[in-house]
Amino acid sequence: MHTKRIIPCLDVKDGRVVKGINFVDLKDAGDPVSVAKAYDEAGADEVVFLDITASSDNRDTVVDMVRAVAANVFIPFTVGGGIRTVEDFKLLLREGADKISINSSAIDNPNLISEAASQFGSQCVVVAIDAKRRDDGGWNIYKHGGRIDCGIDAVNWAIEAEKRGAGEILLTSMDCDGTKAGYDIKLTKAISDAVSIPVIASGGAGLKEHFYDALTIGGAEAALAASLFHYKELEISELKEYLRDRDVPVRL
Amino acid sequence: MVAIIDYNAGNLKSVQKAFDYIGKKAICTRDYHDILNADRVVLPGVGSFEYAINELRKYELDKAIYEVCEKNIPFLGVCLGLQLLFERSMESPDVKGLSLLEGEIVRFPDDNNLKVPHIGWNSLELHNDGRLFRGIDDGAFVYFVHSYYLRARNEEIVTASCDYGVNVHASIEKDNIFACQFHPEKSSTIGLKILENFTEI
């Protein structure tokens, strides 16, 4: 039985987890290893680390973090944020990251997708898309943390990313992100229908039903959330039991 | 000691770290003597079939692998490391696999409405009393990432399978040769148990 995935996303700055993780039993909520371990035990299927350090001269801290996580946590993890070159891919994959997520750098240089895929395999190339609704009902992609409208249609970009060898799409709705009003199901479905690679829905999760909708109507293979899990507003095990009871296959 | 064959594959260190974690010393090496003197040998791998085969041949690691098998040293292929053991792959029709086992690697059909690559946790159906799966229940979940899958000629070597629109041969065992299409090093406690079982064979 193939299962749908539930993925907590952790923001990391200078090698430390930020955004107040609220695991009661955690001695050091900023330590990426402790947090990832706790999520493994809580039933997370993967973990995403998003490096939000503004400058790019902290490559070493990220590499150190990847090395430490890989030595102690044995579920897949993705690293994203500030990855610009095939060399960056190599460095992080070699230390034990399973997948690398790229966003702005893929838009600026789509060849990065193809080059990384041909060198390391599609399975480790995740193209992250930040999409925002247009007046005509479609979506445009944004770069640099959602600051710049690229004027490119999100569905077309997803198709292009797949063609170039992306193995997965991490799709964030900028309209829904932070609202806790639910994922953008229309967007998720539009992208999921357009590509044959898995889509991870992101942005807007607030209730168990939202996950159900994204994984069924939206056609997503995985659903990602951050604060909802970090602040224990929702336990992963409880969410998975809910999904299982509604015939969504999950690992329990 | 476990020798992990180093041919520039991406996931070497993850495999090494998993062995370290369960208290079994592992080294990444392409040295012929290190490999032949190890008490366990692992062939990891992600990426393309052709690239991997060419790298193995470049460093004459194919020969080392044949000798490991002749000497009956327990050998474990992981992911692409499983695929390389067979005769051919649809991914790279022009190159020959190591052909230690009979069977071929085929692409998931496009028309079965399932996403390719097959990424995620899938439950195993266990067969033929595989030694890697001692103490592991039928239905246990492990982590997969692949676009091509094994069709072994002889189903008697298949010790685990899973369903992804098609029946995927997920693990095999023949004499001293073991292999998993999934990633034990990324399959949490179940995966670590599988690696532990391998070290205890």
Q: How would you sum up this structure, described in words?
A:
Chain A is of the alpha/beta class. In chain A, 36% of the residues lie in helices and 23% in strands. The longest helix of chain A has 14 residues. Chain A starts with a strand and ends in a 7-residue tail after the last helix. By secondary structure, chain B is α/β, with parallel strands linked by helices. Chain B has a single domain, classed as 3-Layer(aba) Sandwich (Rossmann fold), CATH 3.40.50.880. Chain B contains 6 helices and 13 strands. In chain B, 54% of the residues are buried. The interface between A and B is large, with 34 and 39 residues.
Q: What's the structural blueprint in terms of helices and strands?
A:
The complex is a heterodimer of chains A (252) and B (201).
Chain A: E1 5-13, E2 16-17, H1 32-42, E3 47-51, H2 59-72, E4 77-80, H3 86-94, E5 99-102, H4 104-108, H5 111-120, E6 125-133, E7 139-143, E8 148-153, H6 154-163, E9 168-173, H7 185-194, E10 199-202, H8 208-215, E11 222-225, H9 227-230, H10 236-245
Parallel strand pairs in A: 1-3, 1-11, 3-4, 4-5, 5-6, 6-9, 9-10, 10-11
Antiparallel strand pairs in A: 1-2, 6-7, 7-8
Helix pairs in contact in A: 1-2
Chain B: E1 2-5, H1 12-21, E2 26-29, H2 32-37, E3 40-43, H3 49-58, H4 61-70, E4 75-78, H5 80-83, E5 88-89, E6 103-107, E7 118-123, E8 125-126, E9 141-146, E10 148-152, E11 158-164, E12 166-174, E13 177-180, H6 188-199
Parallel strand pairs in B: 1-2, 1-3, 3-4, 4-13, 5-6
Antiparallel strand pairs in B: 6-10, 7-9, 8-11, 11-12, 12-13
